[in-house]
Fold ADP-L-glycero-D-manno-heptose-6-epimerase.
Amino acid sequence: MGYFAENHSDMIVVTGAVGFIGSQLIEKLNFENFNAIVAVDKFDNPLKNRNLEGLKVLEKVDRDIFMQWLDVNYEEVEFIFHIGAKTDTTLFDTELLNKLNTSYTREIWNRCVKYQIPLVYASSAATYGLGEHGYDDNEKLIPKLKPLNPYGQSKQDFDLWALDQEEKPFYWAGLKFFNVYGPNEYHKGRMASVVWHAYNQIRETGGMKLFRSHNPEYKDGEQMRDFVYVKDVVDVCYWLMHHRRDSGIYNLGSGKARTFLDLTQAVFKAMGKKESISFIDTPEDIRDKYQYFTEANMDKLCSIGYSRKFHELEEGVEEYVGRLLRG
C-alpha cells in the first residue's frame, strides 16, 4: 500500500482505547504488526483497563491532555482513529454529551486539518432516529435525520458540522456504527449488546426475557436490528486506514436486519441450551424512542472497493459465545 514504513513505526492513535471497539481495533492492529499504538482514554476504570491486557501499546495518554500531547507529537502520528465517545443512549446530560462527543471531536478534526493527519471517527446509527428517511448514508439526506435521544443528536451534530467545513483533513471518514456486538463489551452494563445480556441471563436463569413489541406492525421478539460483529467493524477501520480516498460518512452494519428472536435462538444454540424465551414490557423511559427496525444500506462502502464478507449473525454469535464460555 505504500503508506507505512516496513517496521510500522509510525504512531497510530486510538481514542476510546480501553473501550469495546477501541480495544478490539488495537488487537487487530497488533495482529497486523502495528505496535506503535498511542492509546487515549481515561484509564480510571480497572475493569475496562483489562481490555488492554496482552496488547502492545507504545504510550497511554489521558483523554484530557490528548490535545496538548498531539500538539507536541503530531509529526510522528500517521493516523487517528477517534472511537472514544459517551455512548449511553439513556443519558440526558446534553452538556456532557456535547463536550465529549461533539466539541472534543471538533478539536481532533481541527488538528487533523492543521497537521495533515488522516482521521476515521465513530458516528452512530442512532442518528437515523425512527428511520423515517431510511438507513441510507447519502450525505444529502443527513440534514433531514431526527435522532431520538441526546446521544444520537450529539453524533448528528458533529456529522453536520463536519460536512459543513470548508477545511477538512486530506482523508477522513465518519462511520455510522449499527448494533455492534462482540468481545470486550462486558463493562458497558445496560448499553452492552443483546448477545451479552442473553448469554448472562441464560447462564444465570436458563431463559431469556425479550422486550415485548408495543408496535402492532411487529410481533413480540420480531423487532429487527442490524447486528454487526465487532471483528467486521475493525476490519473496515483497518481497510480504510490503507484506502485513504473517497472521504465521507459511511454506514457500518452487516447490511442485513435480523430479529431479536433470531439472535436469542443463536445464543441458546451456541451455549448448547434448550430455548426458553419470554417477554417483558419495554421500559417506559425508552419506549417512545425505541427503534423497531434498522438495516444499514452498505452499497456506498462496497462502491469504494470494500469486498470482505461480513459474518452472518449465527457465525458471529457462535464465535463470541464460544469465547465467553472459555472465559
